[in-house]
Amino acid sequence: MASTLKNVVVVGGSYVGLATAKELANVLPATHRPRFAVLPDYEHMAFIPFTGSFARSPTKDLHAIVQAEAVSLKAKQLTLDREWQGSKLLNFDFLVAATGTRLASPGSMPSYEKASSVEYLKKYNQGIKQSKSVILIGGGAVGVQMACDLKEIYPDKEVTLVHSRDHIMPVYHEKLSDLIKQRFQELGINFIGGSRVNIPEGGYPIGGTGEPIEVKTLDGRTLTADFVVQATGQTPNTQWLKDLPPSSADSILNPKNGFIRVRPTMQFADPAYPHLYAVGDVADSGAHKAARPGVGQAAVAAKNILALIQGQEPVEQIEIGPAGIHLSLGLKKNTIFRNPDVKAGQAEPAFGVKDDGSADMNIANFWERRGVIVSDPKEYHL
After folding, report:
1. Which positions ≥6 away from 209 have C-beta within 8 Å?
2. pLDDT score of 42
């Protein structure tokens, strides 16, 4: 039977990648198998093992987690940076790209290993702790949440957020920006809007230098702080697609933003690759980049792959709704915010503010969703 097994490869093991693998593991027939920093003292809980990823799958013994980096892709073959089962080449029938995006530090780790990544976050936390003033560059979700956390954990620090626009988190209705600015005032966070920063090549030092760091804006201002957090931009993880040739004048990637061009079915837009899919942040789907739409895309991709396996057309399509977010505004305060559904005639956003958060953001629930049940807090260090 082993010789008849067909591989469905999921590249990327973060939130949406794992959701895709689990969706596939639950619906694919047995002949197919998918493969797959601010708060101190919690660093070890940020890295969740994959050991329970397929625990609830009806065919869990057919699936595998492969720890490797995707180096290049051909139509039916993926090249890895290390050997797995005696080869760096992994043949497949279907592939789902869920590689997401790279963020500036501390959003992306410099290592693939837990121990060194925990040490990296500890060093980052120590640099913040020792600083008297912190500047955050970027008014997206990362910058906003880190600013609120910083000021609540260290109320005596001077915290400043610099954003290129006056409208914070411009993907969302201006009432979210107003809500954030109100929260900044409550906490004593300085906000400088409409000012773009000239970020030096290589970024800013991690952990501080012991000397004031200059932050220069394009409009001529110079700000100084002991620690600088760069919370701007997302770079799609698509470098491993460089060897995949397009079949027409249209490129595999959208030249305007670097994301993978896809159809509403989540298949690659290039007609030569109906067996290749992209989901989550790396896909140029038109949906806002967040966990909820990403998980919905994973479900669509899984259903369409199953349809192709069964000899049917992949007709399932994503539905793009108004952007929404669950945004923390400190250790406990948070908001669930949703843009108005213009197609449904809505003019106002829907949102509410609660104080029901926790310092660790209920991370234990995420471990459990990954199939890892922790009975002793020491197990978080494994």
Report:
1. none
2. 42
Instruction: State whether the Cα torsion 158-164-167-168 is positive or negative.
Output: negative
Contacts of 82 (CB under 8 A, 6+ apart): 68, 69, 88
Task: Round to whole Å and give the CA distance between 224 and 264.
Answer: 46
Domain carrying residue 62: 2-103+235-309
pTM value is 0.80
Domain limit, last residue, from 284, 309, 334: 309
Helix, strand and coil content of the chain, in percent to the nearest 5, comes to 30, 25, 50
* CATH code: domain of residue 121: 3.50.50.60
At 335, the pLDDT band (50, 70, 90 cuts) reads very high
Angle at the Cα of 217 (from 211 to 223), degrees rounded to 5? Answer: 35
Spell 94-131 as b/e; 16+ CB within 10 A means b: bbbbbbbbebbbbeebeeeebeebbebbbbbbebbeeb
**What is the rounded CA–CA span in Å between residue 249 and residue 261?**
13
Write out the two tokens for 329. 């505004």
- Whether residue 166 is contained in a domain is answered as yes
Both tokens of 265, joined, read 């079915």
